[in-house]
Amino acid sequence: MADNGKSQYNIVVAPDADKDELFASLEFQRYFENITGIKLRIDRKQNLAGPYSIRIGKNTRFKNIPTVGVDGVIIKTDNSGLIISGNMNRGLLYAVYSFFEKYLDCRFFALDEIKIPKKSYVVIPQVNYSYSPPFTFRSYYSQENSNKAYADFHKENYFFEGRLYHAHSLAWLLPAEKYFKTNPEYFALIDGKRDPSQICFSSEGALAELIKVLQREIQATPNKVWSVSHLDSPNYCHCNLCENKYKKGNGFSETLIPFVNRVAKAFPDKIISTLAYNQSILPSKLEKPASNVEIMFCFTHIDRRYAVDSDKNKEAKKFIEALQDWKKQTSNLFIWDYNVNYFHSLFPFPNLDNFQQNIVYFKKIGAKSIFLEGIGPQQGEFSELKSYLASELLWDPEADADLLMNDFLMNYYGDAWKDIKEYITILELNAGKYNNPLDVYANPVIYKDGYLNQQNMAAYRGILNKALNKVKTSAKFTNRIKKEMLSIDYAELEILSNTPNARMGRTSQDTYNNKLNSFKEEAKKLNITYLRNAEFTVDEFVKQKRR
Question: Whole-angstrom Cα distance, residue 544 to residue 152?
């Protein structure tokens, strides 16, 4: 395809190529030029076939090519040259990126590390590759995936695209600020008083008003999927109507599901999504979800040291049982899983080892939509690695996870990559030695006598210092390792501030405050702004912890 700055090939699209086909052809042209220095000509032809042609178009443009599913990709060589094609949604664009990733070794490791190798000579073998991803919705919540170019290269959906509200939607559809004063009966009865912390799902008035609101919202924003889900509060209504329904079955869901089904009936051409989350984790025994109701099942309080379906994960068993019961009622399941401690997004959270097993399990149970909640639009502990690994595995759950990790580490940390991998491995081994479940809401102080004890923390620092020595001439690699060192500093400060009578060897107040100041200065140098779900700043943390 290229030989010392020259190529006989050109890109061919149909005369009526749509914007997606044109963008895909421009992306192919851009990547190929970046690699070889050759800017391929883009021609519009009725007959796409021809010698030395790179034919780019949706699968309906071609005959005798494989059939693929939603977002599926096709890369095929023949006597005329190369075919790049794909199915509905963004399959064609994903095929372009798959070509450069698979055959020309391009990588989008992170926003600050993109690999586009320079080649004067490009040859590809005879190819007949097609692939359909097992999940039709794939998303990892991270700073990287909020970048469109990154999300596209990794073949991921944008943040809840096609959904105006993704969860806890009744907080926006029936806001207490608007309705509680005039219609308190829409809200939960708690301790004999109406309370805006939850909806009363037996309220006919709330149902009627919600349908009116949705009619207006749908007319303004014609999304396919609409969330009708309870507030993010453990409370529930105790009025007589609700209590009588709870007693007949599985509690909270006995009011939620009938309510959601009636909304779904009012909008038969839409998918109405609701949560299986906390008090609604169990399905109703009395009423199945309607055919156009989506169940967004959330794995919340489980032990993140282990995979969801691991025998060691005792906390996950009740979730798996609940999910199996939901599966008996519906196949319309959306999995929402959590991959970080987003209340303490910088401290060491050793769960990389179970990323693949979890995603394979979600594929095995037949889920088609997966959202993995990372720390959102901020940096955190190994946030770039976790985003990369999750994104690659959501596209292909059977990929070699160890190879993916090694590829990332070698490019992101240079000569120190083996030390970083050693650090990751020892963190995970140490977490497994102690009887402290790894929880997405836990404070690091819980682990002060476990994997974050003084001896272990000293060992972690030793490994990272060894890594720093190997890349001391590279500011890029040094700063990336210092971010992970800052993770240990954060954990130490949290532990010190929460154990005032046993401050890791009775550290003096001056020493403690000096550690805080150093943490703040280092975080600023490394552009670390937030420490919790993109909302709790380093400055706020230091102010809160200072003595």
Answer: 39
| CB proximity list for 195: less than 8 A, separation 6 or greater | 187, 188, 189, 235
Quick one: pLDDT at residue 504? 47
pLDDT band for position 79 (cuts 50, 70, 90)? confident
Cβ-based burial of 46 (10 A; exposed 0-12, middle 13-18, buried ≥19): exposed
pLDDT at 500: 67
**Residue that has been written with the tokens 């169990």 in this structure:** 282
Please report where in the chains the tokens 């070699």 appear, as a residue: 400
Q: Which two tokens mark 225?
A: 């999927």
Quote the pLDDT of residue 278.
96
The pLDDT-based confidence of 100 (bands split at 50, 70, 90) is very high
* Beta partners for residue 74, in sequence order: 85, 130
Q: For 219-229, how does the pLDDT look when each residue is reduced to its tens digit (9 = 90+)?
A: 999 899 999 99
Maximum separation of any 2 CA atoms in the chain, in Å:
81
Question: In Å, how far are 73, 135, 337 from 300, measured between CA atoms?
Answer: 34, 21, 7
pLDDT at 501 over 80: no
Contacts of 64-72 with C-beta under 8 Å, sequence gap 24+, read 65/130, 66/128, 66/130, 68/130, 68/131, 68/132, 69/132, 69/133, 69/136, 70/132, 70/133, 70/136, 71/132, 71/133, 71/136, 71/155, 72/130, 72/131, 72/132, 72/133
